[in-house]
Amino acid sequence: MFVRLFSAALTAVSLLSVPALAADRESTRDDIALARNSMLLFGGPSEDYPRIGLVTWGQGLSVLSCEPSAAWCEVEADGQRGWVRSSKLTWGGDGRRKVMRKRIAPLRLTL
Which domain holds residue 52? Predict the structure, then answer.
């Protein structure tokens, strides 16, 4: 009984550490962020590029890539690709820049 309980606890702890490891990686096509407010979608990583669309508050965006400076991110919204300021995206709650995953597997523990 102790071995099963210890094994289940060890598995739970190791599964809880996976999101922390994933937060340090670069963004990929499976990453999403939320728009903090309504903002313009630009054709490139600067306001000098043409305005090509509008992103509304709370809209989920697929993050395709971010500049090395992290000032601008290329996103896809409703099938339209463009660039937005990364400061206008919600990345997480602890102040560190991170992205939210689209798919989160449920945690199941059996004892």
Answer: 26-101
- The 10 Å Cβ neighbour count of residue 57 is 11
Above 70 in pLDDT, residue 109?
no
CA distance 55 to 98: 20
Read off the CATH number of the domain in which 83 is found.
2.30.30.40
With beta carbons less than 8 A apart as the criterion, state whether 74 and 27 touch.
Answer: no
Asked whether residue 7 is assigned to any structural domain, the reply reads no
59 belongs to a structural domain: yes
> pLDDT exceeding 70 applies to what percent of the chain?
54
- For residue 50, give every residue at least 6 positions away whose Cβ sits within 8 Å of its Cβ, in sequence order, or none: 42, 43
What's the one-letter identity of residue 93?
G
Q: How far apart are CA 103 and CA 82, in angstroms?
A: 23
The answer for residues whose C-beta is within 8 angstroms of residue 11's C-beta and 6 or more apart is 109
